[in-house]
Structure formats: C-alpha cells, structure tokens
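User: If only I could read backbone structure tokens as easily as an amino acid sequence. Those tokens are not coordinates but codes from a learned vocabulary of shapes. Could you go through the record with me and say what the backbone is doing? Here is the record:
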Amino acid sequence: QVQVVESGGGWVQPGGSLRLSCAASGVFFSISDMGWYRQAPGKQRELVGTITWRSNTNYADSVKGRFTISRDNAKNTVYLQMNSLKPEDTAVYYCHVERISYWGQGTQVTVSS
C-alpha cells in the first residue's frame, strides 16, 4: 500500500525559511522521480519542482534560487527547503510520486506578517 506523508508546514514571516519533508512508503523510492507541487486558494495546482531518482532537479521559475529539493533514499524521504519566502508562496504543498501519479495529503504553508 502506497503512503505519502508531507510534514513541516506552518506559518512564517516574509523572508523566513521552512523545510518540508515527504516520507514515502510502498514504492520503490530509490528509483522514483518525486515532485513538489502547490495550490493557492482559488488557483490551479502548479509545479514547484522535481527531483529524479538520480537527484537531478528542476524548478519553476518562480522559486528558482530560493527553493531546493533534495532526497535521502535511506530514509525514503524527499525534502523541500524554502528560503526567502514571500506571501505569494502561501499555498498547500503536495508531494507527488511521479511514476504512479500518487499524491500526498498536502501541508499548509502560510507566509504573512
């Protein structure tokens, strides 16, 4: 049974940092490409970035230079380090197992003063 669980969301002031974690089980994690997506209120879900099983990364233009995706295959976990956060980064952030299109339940990130 596949399980994908995000954690680490919360409230942060503009300019602050958060690190999200995504723990996956029931998948061949070490050979799975993983993605982070987000959905703001009233908007469509959008790609934040992806990391291949070889740890090659790709980012949306809106987060390049501020966000970093990494993975720890020993822990079946992928991370999203978010720095220099802006109010427009406020959204529910979702982890996605790309190969089987499986979504986690999401974690809320709120950036405000």
Remarks:
- The CA atoms of residues 17 and 83 lie 4 Å apart.
- The longest strand covers residues 18-25.
- The chain has a mean pLDDT of 96.
